[in-house]
From TrEMBL:
Lineage of origin: Bacteria, Bacillati, Bacillota, Negativicutes, Veillonellales
Family: Belongs to the CdaR family.
Name of this protein: Predicted transcriptional regulator
Domain PucR C-terminal helix-turn-helix: 227-285
Residue ranges occupied by any CdaR GGDEF-like domain in the UniProt entry: 73-174
Stored Gene3D superfamilies: PucR C-terminal helix-turn-helix domain (1.10.10.2840)
Length: 296
């Protein structure tokens, strides 16, 4: 800030200095001589304090709404900050930014340029980004430009009450993206795993999994064998011994022996396509449980 009027005029500020400020993205202000810099500084700091306090209240309200209590008082608090019940809303969960503080600042600067209402805040080891409206293509391009960043996207929420579900989906998509080394993962593209992640509890999945694979997995654990690995590959190759052998770098006869042994340990007939599908689904559930175990 430059006080002008008594000893220094606005015309005294050279173009070279203005260019230097522009190049460094450094703001340059001029103030009449009568305005004291101390008063401006005090007013600015007071506004900054109020802004931080309001942001803290908003972050607290969002955390309660998304990950805790979803009461009417929280909705009222969010409504006061401009987040109405009508959607659509988009939830993204981000992880892997090199420096969270600088990434948050850069993100806010970019998002401000989009002119779309948003809220962004850190949560545990991730960053949660909420948007009013659909996901803009420019934001997707910008986020994908960060090499170390992994983004999980939830299904678009039709209204505010559905946003917690969308946020949880973003967290689950992020887990999948990290596991499969994908920089961007959309929950709606997870196929059967989207159904698994959407279960309020895993009891039904455990019943199906244990009935189909319980004895087989117990045999593998007790005999240090790899019947499950062979069975899963066999099902992925639609019952092809040749394809399974090629994937596992194992002789075809060895694969046939293992499958024959596995068939005695599962209560389903692999020659019946419906029963084979049930076993294949159980294998996917087993993968899902492994994902949960490795991310807790």
């Amino acid at each position: 800030m430059v006080n002008t009027g008594k000893y220094l005029l606005a015309s005294d500020i050279t173009d070279a200095l203005k260019d230097r400020c522009d190049a460094a993205a450094f703001p340059l202000f001029t103030l009449p001589w009568e305005v004291r810099l101390a008063d401006i500084t005090q007013s600015f700091l007071s506004s900054l304090f109020l802004t931080h306090r309001e942001e803290y209240r908003a972050i607290t309200a969002w955390k309660e709404f998304l990950f805790g209590v979803q009461g009417s008082s929280v909705l009222t608090e969010l409504a006061l900050t401009g987040w109405k019940e009508e959607g659509p809303y988009t939830a993204l969960v981000l992880a892997g930014a090199d420096a969270d503080a600088s990434f948050l600042a850069d993100s806010k600067s970019f998002l401000n340029g989009l002119g779309q209402p948003y809220f962004i805040f850190p949560y545990k080891d991730t960053v949660v980004l909420l948007l009013q409206g659909e996901l803009p293509a420019a934001l997707v391009t910008w986020l994908k430009g960060h090499e170390q960043l992994v983004t999980g996207q939830g299904v678009t929420a039709p209204d505010l009450k559905a946003l917690p579900d969308s946020c949880r989906q973003g967290q689950q998509a992020l887990i999948w993206g990290r596991l499969h080394q994908q920089s961007w993962c959309y929950f709606g593209a997870l196929g059967a795993y989207a159904l698994f992640f959407s279960q309020p509890d895993d009891q039904v999945l455990h019943v199906l999994h244990d009935r189909a694979l319980g004895a087989l997995l117990a045999y593998d654990e007790g005999h240090q064998s790899s019947l499950y690995e062979t069975l899963e590959a066999y099902l992925c190759h639609d019952g092809s011994l040749k394809g399974t052998a090629a994937q596992l770098y194992t002789h075809r006869n060895t694969v046939a022996y293992r499958i024959h042994k596995a068939e005695k340990l599962i209560p389903y007939d692999l020659n019946d396509w419906e029963q084979r599908f049930t076993v294949f689904l159980a294998c996917h559930i087993h993968r899902y449980f492994e994902i949960l175990k490795n991310n807790h």
